[in-house]
Amino acid sequence: MINGSLNQPVRAKISYLSRDELYKREKPYSAEFEIEENETMKNTNYILTELEILIHPISTSNQFTLDNNGFCTIKARTHLDIEAALAQVQSVKESYMTELQEILSKQFPEYRRIEPMECVVRSRDNRFPSPQTAVVKHEQPARLAHSDYSLEGAYMQLEAMFPGQKDYFKDKEFDMLK
């Protein structure tokens, strides 16, 4: 539950994936469909830690940098039409990702190559969040704050996006931006 005003820091409880030994052997997962659980098959292997945190408003877009904070904000306009994105996901994704590539290229001229990896169009269902499984029309908001700390996690993502090029990226510097 979040409490506070938009101009002041707010306290919130957020669930994170725990740093557990299990994730050195298994990638965290949660099935998006009902399965009959038993000792070897589970709906999820999530082990969660709930933390109360203080969320500060971002008042100026230039106070955060990738190098110092691990994130930044960019003020830019796109031509994304939300209704079209929900109706024609694939065609809208392609034009939107092209726009984002152009914006990122201008913002980060030091990058030689910007490759889009993923774009998910989400529209919150009125029942979200709900403990019950339901068929919904669109992807729902992410329920967990997390970052991938699995061994070689970045290389696993690269292999999925650029099959057979793991050696090309080995010992090279690269950033993955969300």
From TrEMBL:
Recorded GO MF terms: oxidoreductase activity
Lineage: superkingdom: Eukaryota
PANTHER family per record: BLL6449 PROTEIN (PTHR34598), OXIDOREDUCTASE AN1597 (PTHR34598:SF3)
Family, similarity comment: Belongs to the asaB hydroxylase/desaturase family.
Name listed for the protein in its UniProt record: Uncharacterized protein
Source organism phylogeny: Eukaryota, Fungi, Dikarya, Ascomycota, Pezizomycotina
